[in-house]
Each structure stands twice: as C-alpha cells, then as structure tokens.
Write a structure and sequence with these properties.
The complex is a heterodimer.
Chain A (H helix, E strand, L loop, with lengths): L2 H13 L1 H5 L23 E10 L2 E11 L4 E5 L6 H7 L10 E9 L2 E2 L7 H7 E4 L10 H11 L7 H11 L3 H4 L12 H13 L5 E5 L7 H14 L4 E5 L3 H7 L2 E9 L5 E10 H6 L4 H7 L5
Parallel strand pairs in A: 3-8, 3-9, 6-7, 7-8
Antiparallel strand pairs in A: 1-2, 1-4, 4-5, 9-10
Helix pairs in contact in A: 5-8, 6-8, 8-9
Chain B lengths: L1 H13 L1 H36 L6 H4 L13 H32 L5 H13 L4 H13 L9 H25 L3 H9 L4 H29 L3 H5 L20 H8 L5 H31 L5
The complex binds adenosine-5'-diphosphate (ADP) and magnesium ion.
C-alpha cells in the first residue's frame, strides 16, 4: 500500500463522519464476505490464505487462523518469523509501510477489511493496537485518553466519564486521578503502557492487538499488564505477540506458533506451524517444531 | 601477578608517544579557531567602538536627514526592517511549512518527481541572494505583476530567498518527531491529516520556530536583493502598508558608508551596531526556544 492510497481513505472518512458517530452501527460494507476457515473457532477475525510481501520479499505466507471472541490468542515464534507482520495486517497498520502488500483475506465479522469501500479509520477504531515500546503522546494524561474519541468523531456526552472509565479499565485510574493534566511523559514505563491500553480502549474497540507489550517493562510492571490482559479479556478480544512463552502460557486460551524456514532459494518466509488451544500447544504439541521451540531447543 | 601489572603499566606509558602528533593537531585546530575568533572580535570591537559615538535615542526616533547628520537617525529603516520581516514571515512560513509537511508526511519519496523537488530545493538554498532580487525585479516589480518597488515586492524577494532554508529546517524538525507518535495516532483511527495537524506539527513547533527565526534573521541582513527590487536608500517616513515605499537597515548602511562627511560615517557605524543587536536578539531567541523545548523523547 502506498501513502497515496491512504490519502484516498482519509477523504472517505470525512464523508463517512455521520455514520461513524452513531457508535454501534457497522459502517463496513458487507460486500466482501469471506467464508469461515474450516475447523477454526468461529472468530471475530479470520485470516484466509494470508500472504504479506515487503516489496519483493515474501515475509509470511499461507496463514489461516481465526481469533475467538473474548479470548486471548497468543502468537509465538522465533524473531523474524512474521508475528508482527501478521498482527499489523489485522488493523491495516501495514498500509503505513511503503512497499507492503497483503494477499488473501482478513475477515472481520466476515467482511474483508482489505476489500473495497472499507473505511480504514473505522477498522482501526474497532481494532485497537498497543505497541512494543510505550508511545504516549507528548500531551496530558487526559488528552492522551481523549484523543481517540475526539479524532474519530465519537459522540461523547461526557468526555470526563469516558476518560475515567478507560483509565479504570486499564487499572491506572487510582495512580493518575490527581494528575490528569500532567504530561504523560512523567509516568513510569509500566504506567505509560497501561495509559496506551487506556487510550486504545477509550474508542470502545472490540479487538485489541498487542505487539510484545511487556518487552520494555520490568517484571513487576509486566505482571500488572498480564493481570490486566486477563481482566480485559472478559470484554475484549485480545491478540498478543510475545516472545515470552511463559506469558503466552499464563494468559492465552489459544496459541499460534510461527516459524520461518529458509526455502531452496534461501528466502525465509514465515508460516503458521500450529494453531491450537494453549493447553494443547504447551502440553502436547502435534508438530515436532513446536515441541522443539517450547522446550527451548531452538529459536 | 606483578609481571602482568608491569606489562600493563608499560603499555599504558608507551601510549604517550602517539600523544605528540595529536597534541600538535589539537594546537593547530585551536590556532584556527583563535584566528576566526580574533577576526570576529576585531570586527565587533571596531563596530562597537565607532558605533557607540552615535548610539543615542535619536538613532531610532529620528528619520534620516541630509542636512542634520549629527542628530538624524534611521527610524524609517528600522521600521522598514520590522515591516519586511513580518511580511516575509507571513509569506515564507506558511508556504515553507506546508511544503515541508507535504514532503515529509505525504510524499512518496520513491517517486521521481518528489526526488526531483527535493534536489531542487537543496540547489535553491545555494543560489546567491542577488539572483532572487533579479527574479523579483523581473516578475514582481515589473513584468507580470508590476506592483512597483514597494514593500510587498521586497518581502516576496526575501521570502523566495529563505523559502528553501525554511523548508529544509522544517523537514528536519518534522523528521525528529518519532514515528511511534504517528503510528500511535493512526492506530487510534486518526486520519493522516489529523495525525499531522494534532500530533506531528505541535511536536515539531520548537524546531520549526527555531529554524524560522534563523532564516528570518538571514533575510533582514540582506541588502543585495532589496537594492535590486528598489528599496530606497533615503526615506523620511515609515511604511504605512504593503504597497508603501520603504527602506531597510542594510540598504541604509549601504547608502551611508560612501558619504564623505564623518557624521554620516558615524551614523553608519551605529546603524551597523543596531542591526547586529537586532540579529543577536533574534538568534538568542532561537537558542532559547531550542533549549526551552528540549526534545522530550
Ligand atoms: N517494514 C519492513 N520492511 C521490510 N521488511 C520487513 C519490515 N518489517 C518486517 N520485515 C521483515 O519481515 C520479516 C518478519 O518480520 P516481523 O513481522 O517483524 O517478525 P517478528 O515480529 O516475528 O519478529 C522479517 O524478515 C523482517 O525483516
Ligand atoms: Mg515483532
């Protein structure tokens, strides 16, 4: 996707503003319906033959999986196997990478989000994202949380209430309620990451994507975020990329294991090796490569 | 044990031999620096010493006069400089910032036309200022626009002159905003425009302001392009609008220096001192801004 395509999408959004405001209405056109993947859970998001290229380089291929509603799905695998790439496809953040191209389908409630007429803004409002490194805006804590509802034109009668609910949802309210007007950069790393989670849930998404959200945090902050994820899973569908297998085992219900094996031309393309319940993946994996990875024999 | 220590000690000491060359080199560098500083100091000292003679309130409260050089001032030129600086900023900053935003945030840098634009901006920054004067003379003062030798024409010439520098410094300021801010905003459902307007530009304001002030301080020190577009050298009224005739400090200095009465030359020195003070204040402001809003990431 190029930047120019993104611009077209932004103009679309402005014309769609009135729809966006009425919150629960689905504005995505139901014209790109994709049949469900066989044998996979009846998911909120379903990937069908997903294949991603960065210019000529095929980063991942043949990914078929489905993410269950109000479940935590973990994506694990050695680094460079395409976990982040797959995750970024789920809310079209790959559009921002020049030269990135996505084949196959990413179906959100049966609608291909890469199809025509899809409002990418609405996709990102419903499918939020938390990044590896906490990235609060250089603004006040309050403005960080209020930013999403403001820019997406959500009809909000009481912004204070939205901000409080989001901060409570991210287990941060008690720590920041007296300093909402202070700059978010004054918070600790763990607090900043929970602020980013609050920011994501303020737009009332259905799905939250997390790309190694704890890799920049200390063990105590990590434990807090893990507890939070489990709590959030009662409301949201969570998909988390992690390099920490204990974390995947602790928090997730389902786990997908990726690897990138070099082909005869020496190109390393990521593939989904095994996708099953977390219990199965960590207790009794079907694939020898999965077993080797989780027992620490490679990767 | 002791043997090892000894060896280490000796190898440390033998390092002194290399020190000779680098000491000589360092001294050479210091000498260069000292020569440059000495020159600067000498120029400044001369200007201050000779400029102080007429550095009195009359300098800024009186208009130029052919008859009373000992009590006249350069009021019309100071006001002209302020006018032209504001007008230049009004023209160059919106254009320059918009161009920088396009190139940094929107343009696909792999396209040949965007690369061509970039290359041209780099080249334009190196074009001598007098060329911009000729351009404005041909297209603005006369030619298609034909607005005459007025303030607006001078401001257009200076705006064209500083535009490449403004674009380049604004791009640097935008580039220093981390991409995580952009992806964070876009991931929340903000449009490209909202992301630029609400996140990237505010975060880049200190850098943009610093760069703009430095560019403007270059503009108000210019005499050559303004002489071409017809800034007068002798004027006894302040500009009263963008279509007014005008004079500025550098052209005033240019006209005072060759005059043979010593009073005129004293006035020229104090005018130079005044211009240097204005420039120092602007540069100090730029430095203060840069330090005040140190990058937060
Ligand atoms: N923006 C990009 N441009 C080009 N190649 C990329 C880009 N991002 C990732 N890749 C490549 O895609 C492959 C998968 O990367 P990534 O999805 O980041 O893996 P993971 O998150 O599993 O470590 C890697 O070979 C990486 O070099
Ligand atoms: Mg990654």
């Amino acid at each position: 996707m190029t930047r120019s395509e993104q611009r077209t999408v932004s103009t679309e959004q402005r014309t769609n503003k009135s729809d966006t405001a009425s919150e629960s209405q689905v504005t995505i056109e139901r014209s790109n319906t994709v049949p469900p993947v066989e044998g996979a859970p009846d998911g909120v998001i379903t990937l069908k033959d997903l294949e991603v290229f960065y210019s000529d380089f095929r980063a991942v291929t043949n990914v078929n999986m489905s993410f269950g509603s109000r479940e935590i799905t973990a994506l694990i695998g050695p680094s460079g196997c395409g976990k982040s790439t797959v995750l970024r496809c789920l809310n079209r953040m790959n559009d921002l990478v020049p030269g990135a191209r996505v084949e196959g389908a990413v179906a959100y409630h049966g609608v291909d989000i890469y199809g025509e007429d899809v409002d990418v803004i609405e996709v990102r409002r419903r499918i939020g994202m938390v990044f590896q490194k906490p990235n609060p805006f250089p603004k006040s804590i309050y403005d960080n949380v209020a930013y999403g509802p403001r820019v997406t034109g959500m009809k909000v009668s009481d912004m204070d209430n939205v901000v409080e609910r989001a901060l409570r949802g991210a287990a941060l309210w008690d720590e920041v309620k007296d300093k909402l007007k202070q700059n978010a950069f004054g918070l600790s790393g763990g607090q900043q990451q929970r602020l980013c989670i609050a920011r994501a849930i303020a737009t009332s998404p259905e799905v939250i994507l997390m790309d190694e959200p704890c890799s920049a945090l200390d063990p105590i902050a990590t434990a807090k975020i893990e507890d939070l994820m489990v709590e959030l899973a009662s409301t949201y569908t969570i998909i988390i990329v992690t390099h920490n297998m204990q974390q995947a085992a602790r928090v997730s219900q389902r786990t997908g294991f990726f690897t990138a094996e070099a082909d005869d031309k020496g190109q390393r393309t990521g593939r989904l090796v095994e996708f099953d319940t977390t219990e199965h993946i960590f207790g009794n994996p079907s694939d020898a490569r999965t077993e080797a990875y989780i027992t620490g024999r490679f990767g | 044990m002791t043997a090892t220590t000894l060896v280490v000690d000796q190898s440390l000491k033998s390092g002194r031999r290399k020190g000779v060359g680098s000491t000589v080199f360092a001294i050479a560098l210091w000498a260069c620096l000292a020569i440059i500083c000495a020159f600067l100091f000498f120029v400044l000292a001369v200007i201050v010493q000779k400029g102080l003679a007429r550095f009195d309130p009359n300098l800024v409260t009186e208009h130029p006069s052919r008859l009373r050089p000992d009590t006249s001032g350069v009021k019309s030129a100071l006001f002209g400089t302020i006018w032209i600086m504001v007008l230049t900023a009004l023209i160059a900053l919106p254009l320059g910032i918009a161009a920088a935003v396009y190139l940094e945030e929107y343009a696909d840098g792999t396209r040949w036309w965007n690369r061509l634009i970039e290359l041209n901006i780099q080249n334009l920054a190196a074009v001598p200022s007098v060329i911009y004067g000729i351009l404005a003379l041909g297209f603005v003062v006369r030619g298609p626009l034909s607005i005459g030798a007025v303030l607006l024409a001078g401001a257009i010439a200076l705006a064209l002159l500083i535009l490449p520098v403004v674009i380049i410094t604004c791009r640097e300021a935008l580039r220093s905003v981390p991409s995580e801010i952009r992806s964070g905003s876009l991931a929340l459902g903000a449009t490209q425009w909202q992301t630029t307007w609400k996140q990237v530009l505010p975060a880049a304001v200190p850098g943009i302001a610093t760069g703009s002030i430095l560019a403007l301080s270059r503009a108000i020190g210019e005499a050559a392009p303004l002489l071409l577009v017809g800034a007068t050298t002798f004027l006894t009224f302040n500009p009263d609008g963008v279509f007014s005739r005008y004079t500025v400090l550098p052209t005033q200095i240019f006209s005072l220096v060759p005059l043979d009465r010593v009073e005129f030359r004293d006035l020229a020195y104090s005018t130079i001192l005044l211009l240097i003070i204005v420039l120092l204040v602007m540069n100090a402001l730029a430095i203060w801004l840069r330090n005040r809003y140190q990058r937060q990431w």
